[in-house]
Amino acid sequence: MDTTTRGTIGSNGGRRRPAGRSGTRPAGRRDQRRPAGPPPTLRLGPHHWFAERLLAVVSGRRPVHSLLGHTIGPAYQQLVNLAPAEHHLRERLSPVVRQCGRFIPGPGVIEAFARIATGDRVTAMAFRLEQGPDLRWRCAAVEIQGPRP
Predict the structure, then answer these.
(1) Distance (Å, rounded) from C-alpha 133 to C-alpha 81?
(2) What whole-number distance in Å separates Cα of residue 20 and Cα of residue 51?
(3) Which of 19, 33, 83, 93 is deepest in the core (most CB within 10 A)?
(4) Is the pTM of this model over 0.85?
(5) What's phi and psi for 87, nearest 5 deg?
(6) Residue 76: its H or E element
(7) Structural contact between residues 116 and 95, judged by C-beta atoms closer than 8 angstroms
(8) At residue 123, what are phi and psi to the nearest 5 degrees?
(9) pLDDT, tens digit, 9 for 90 and up, residues 95-118
(10) What kind and span of H or E run contains 128?
(11) What are the angstrom distances between the C-alpha of 117 and each of 28, 53, 93, 146, 148?
(12) CA 64 to CA 81: how far, in whole Å?
């Protein structure tokens, strides 16, 4: 009768790893550093979202009423005055937000700016965001300086 014992499934058959070697490190790797994890997610603030939406309205790519629930006070009327009279896409260069920044003067308030480029022309847009009791951000004022995007 054969008295040899076979190992169970998943066992290492009595073999042991040499001391000091980690089972998670690839063979041949000598340093203790771990591989880099996924890159951190870039989280943009509400001023970036508003800059893109305001630009779309002011340039005529979106109707003014698309921001109706996102404005308070005189901001909606300011958008009506800044937006082109006709909502149509012309064959021209499309304006893009090149840079967007913010200043937080107090809790629940963001004063932001956006640099808008249309070809080689640059336009400045400034806007104020206020956070309501429902914690939603709304645009309270909009100004544009320079050529219309």
Answers:
(1) 28
(2) 56
(3) 83
(4) no
(5) -95, 95
(6) helix 75-82
(7) yes
(8) -125, 145
(9) 999 999 999 999 999 999 999 999
(10) strand 121-131
(11) 52, 15, 10, 11, 10
(12) 10
